[in-house]
Amino acid sequence: MEKEINIAIFGSGNGSNAQRISEYFADKEGIKIATFVVNKKDAYMIERAKNLGIPCRVFGRNDFYNTNNVTDYLKEMDIDFVVLAGFLWLVPENILQTYQRRIVNIHPALLPLYGGKGMYGMNVHQAVIDNKEQESGITIHFVDEKYDEGTTIFQAKCNIAPDDTAETLAQKIHLLEYEHFPVVIEQVVGNLQHNN
Ligand code: GRF
Predict the structure, then answer these.
(1) Model confidence over 77-98: pLDDT tens digits?
(2) Is residue 107 among the annotated active site residues?
(3) Is the CB of 15 under 6 A from ligand 1?
(4) Is the peptide bond before 92 cis (omega within 30 degrees of 0)?
(5) Does the beta carbon of 150 sit less than 6 angstroms from any atom of ligand 1?
(6) Is the beta carbon of 178 within 6 A of some atom in ligand 1?
(7) CATH (one of 3.50.50.60, 1.20.190.20, 3.40.50.170, 3.20.10.10) for 5-195
């Protein structure tokens, strides 16, 4: 039998994608959401972890960038794969090395458009609206040492109506994320298992 794949979801804030992904995999065999890793003490994602009965650890800047505390924790939890869902810091080298081609991120725009430093959360949607774009979407990609530049795995689009605001666009994007992110994770993890 194939080993169960343990996933850690990293986030910085609300955590609605983390919850959606956890619910998707709750009754599936072979993939388990083993922990949430959060970099802000007051992230609502911590509350969601409690409600879902999923372990959650908070690590600060020093833990991430000057120690092996995070990789040690991931090893202790037997983590095979990392999902970034609303995680706002660059992933440090020691984690990238340990999880090569095994870290994915979701970005709420059609990369390479509207990516890079500062392009997160509502900033992205506001910029898209300000530029009068007619469509936006989501990009799921592998993670490397730069913001939003790893190989694209999947994109999905939505139309922007003339009366859309950054807020209504954010809602459309979230629906796309909830629909596709868990399925794409399942596919990427499945491919990993077959290539091993
Ligand atoms: C999502 O829109 C995601 O694309 C972006 O940050 C947002 C996180 O939302 N990276 P949530 O924390 O999952 O609710």
Answers:
(1) 999 999 999 999 999 999 999 9
(2) yes
(3) yes
(4) no
(5) no
(6) no
(7) 3.40.50.170
Rounded CA-CA distance 147/177 in Å is 19
Q: Which residue has the tokens 């509350």?
A: 47
Task: Quote the pLDDT of residue 177.
Answer: 98
User: Which atom of ligand 1 is the closest one to the Cα of 173?
Assistant: 2
* Angle between helix 166-195 and 121-130 (nearest 10): 120
Q: Is the pTM of this model over 0.70?
A: yes
Instruction: Render pLDDT for 141-196 as a digit per residue (tens, 0 to 9).
Output: 999 877 778 999 999 999 999 999 999 999 999 999 999 999 999 999 998 877 76
List the alpha helices (DSSP H) in 86-159: 93-98, 121-130
